[in-house]
Amino acid sequence: MISSSSVSDLGTNLSPVSELAIDLDRNGGDALHRQIEASVRQRIRSGVLPAGVALPPTRALAAELGVTRGVVVEAYAQLVAEGYLTSRRGGYTQVAAAAATAPPAAAPRPGRPAPPRPAVDFGYGRGNVAAFPRGAWLRSVRRVLTEAADERLGYLDGHGAVELRSALAAYLNRVRGTNADPETIVITNGYAQAVSLLIGMLAARGARTVAVEDPSASDDARPMAQALGLTMVGVPVGADGVRVDAVAELGADVLILTPSHQWPTGGVLSPQARAAVLAWAQRTGALVLEDDYDAEYRYDRAPVGAMQGLDPDRVAYAGTASKTLAPGFRLGWLILPRELIEPFAEAKLLADRGSPILDQLTFADFLSRGEFDRHLRRMRPMYRSRRDALLAALARHLPELEPAGIAAGLHLVAWLPQDLDEATVIAAAAREGVAVAGVTPYRLSPAPRGGLIFGYSNLNERTIADGIARLARAVSSLRAGMSTGAAPSTW
Q1: Nearest Cα to 97, choosing from 49, 34, 131, 36?
Q2: More confident site: 295 or 237
Q3: Alpha-carbon gap, residue 149 to 272, rounded angstroms
Q4: 4-114 sits in which CATH class?
Q5: Cα separation of 262 and 431, whole Å?
Q6: Cα(221)–Cα(232) distance, rounded to whole angstroms?
Q7: In the CATH hierarchy, which top-level class contains the domain 379-484?
Q8: How far is CA 460 from CA 14, 222, 223, in A?
C-alpha cells in the first residue's frame, strides 16, 4: 500500500480522498470493507478513477471514513486480487490499466461512421453522479418502506407528498431565504415539467408573451410557448445578470430569470436590480419565474437569497435535485403565489397523476435528517478544486480568454478575444480531442464576441489540465494559420 513518505512524489496522479466519495452504511448488512470495495470498483468501472491514478493512503482513507486501517487494507487487497488495483511493497496502490478500459462502443450504423469520442469532454449542466450518496439514500429508502403507512401508496393529488413539501419549505426557508409553507409548494418531475405546466396554465389564463434572458437555456420553455402560439422575447444580459433598463421597457406576462447564478454567464443580480425587476412585475402584473440554478454551489461569495422571499405574490420559485443529486430522479418543485396553486396542481394531476410517492418520501427523509446538507458539504470542496484547476490552466495556457461566472456553479464561461471565432475554435478543439460548447446557441440575438462553456464537475484536475493544454494547441494552430493565410487542417 502507499506509504506516507511517497505521497509527495505522486503529484496530481494521487486521487484525493474526496474523489472516492465513499458513503458507508454502518447499520446495513454488508461489511464495511465490502462497501469500500464496491464503491471503488464502481468508480473505476465508470471511469471516474482512470488507469494509473493512485488511491489515497490506507491511513488517510481510514481516518476520513472513521474505520480502522485494517478495514481499508482488506478492501484494497481484494480489489488487487480482482485486478482492479495494482500494488507494490513500499510503493503505492493505483488503478490497473486493464480495469479502467472503457467498454467497446456500439458498432456504427452502415454509412454513418461514429464520431470519435473526445479525450476530454467539458460537458456542462450535470453534477458528478458517481458521487451520489448511495448509502445515505438507501437508509432513507429502508426507513420509508418500513414506516410508510399503506395508504401512502395510493393515488396522489396534484400537490405532492406533504412530507416532502414540509421538508422543502423548512430547508428552502433556512438555506435560500424563501417565503414558503407546505401549501404553496407543488412537486414536479424536474424543472422541465414545472416550466411547461406553468406556461400552459398561464396561457389558459390569458398570457401571450414569455420573456427569457438572452443568452439563456430556454429549451424547456420554448417548445411549450411555440406550441401554444405565445411570443418569446429575449432580454439582454450584462455582467451582473439581466439588464434592468431592458426589463423596464418589457411588455411580457412572464419573465424567466436565473438571478442567483445567471445561465450561462454566471452573473448575480444585485439587490437594486432585483428591486427594479419586482417593481416592474408589480406595475405590470407580470409573473417572475425564478429558476434557482446552481444556487447550492458557491465558492467565493456569500449566499444570495431567493427573490421569491421578497415578493411571494409576484415570484414563482423553481428548484430541482438534478444538479445536486442526480437528474434521473426527476424531482423538482415550485413555490407558487397562492392564486396559482390550485390551477397548477390540477394541471399536474392531469399530466401524470402525480410524481412517484416513494421517491418523494425518500427525499423528504433524506432532507429532514440533514443528509442533503452533508452531501453538499462534501461536494463543494471537490467542485471548487476542479474549478480552481480549470482557472489555473486557463491562466497558464490561454490567458487571452476571459473567465466569467466563476464564483459559483458547475461551469464557467470564457469569453474569446475578437480575433477568434467561436465555431472555428470549437471545431479546432474537436480536432485536438476536446469537446466544448459555445454560448451562441443560447442567444436570441447576435453578440459582438463568442464564448466557450466549460463544465468541470465530471473531470478530475489532471484531465482538466490536459483538456486546456489541448485547447491551447488548437488555438495556436488557428492563429498560425491566420498569420500564413492557410486554412486549418482537418481530419
Answers
A1: 49
A2: 237
A3: 49
A4: mainly alpha
A5: 30
A6: 9
A7: alpha beta
A8: 11, 34, 35
Angle between helices 357-368 and 162-175 in degrees, nearest 10: 40
Q: What residue ranges in 132-281 does DSSP mark as E strands?
A: 185-188, 209-214, 231-238, 241-242, 254-257
The mean pLDDT value for 336-365 works out to: 95
Which amino acid, residue 79? L
How do residues 41-67 score in pLDDT, each as one tens digit?
888 887 878 888 888 888 888 888 888
CA distances 372 to 43, 46, 293, 321, Å, are 21, 23, 17, 10
Half-sphere exposure at residue 283, Cβ-oriented, CA atoms within 13 angstroms: 12
Asked if 252 and 211 touch (Cβ cutoff 8 Å), the reply is yes
pLDDT of 10: 37
Of the pLDDT bands very low, low, confident and very high (cuts 50, 70, 90), residue 124 is: confident
pLDDT of residue 176: 93
At residue 399, φ and ψ (nearest 5 deg) are -65, -15
pTM above 0.85, yes or no: no
Question: What is the domain partition of the chain in residue ranges?
Answer: 4-114, 148-369, 379-484
Q: Write phi, then psi, for 402 (nearest 5 degrees).
A: -110, 100
Cα–Cα dist 12/8, whole Å: 10
Specify whether domain 148-369 bears CATH 3.40.640.10: yes
Looking up cell 412572464 gives: 254
Q: Which residue has the cell 486521487?
A: 15
Helix 371-397 and helix 461-484, axial crossing angle in degrees, nearest 10: 30
Q: Give helix 69-82 / helix 32-46 axis angle, nearest 10°.
A: 50
Q: What's the whole-number mean pLDDT along residues 408-424?
A: 93
The single-letter code of the amino acid at 335 is I
Q: How many CB atoms lie within 10 A of CB 151?
A: 6
Instruction: Give yes or no for a contact between 156 and 357, defined as CB atoms under 8 angstroms apart.
Output: yes
Contact 17, 60 (CB under 8 A): yes
> Are the C-beta atoms of 119 and 471 separated by less than 8 Å?
no
Q: Is the pLDDT of residue 110 over 70?
A: no
- Secondary structure (3-state) at 93: strand
The answer to whether the 148-369 and 379-484 domains have the same CATH topology is no
* Cβ–Cβ < 8 Å for 396, 465: no
φ, ψ dihedrals at 288, nearest 5°: -100, 120
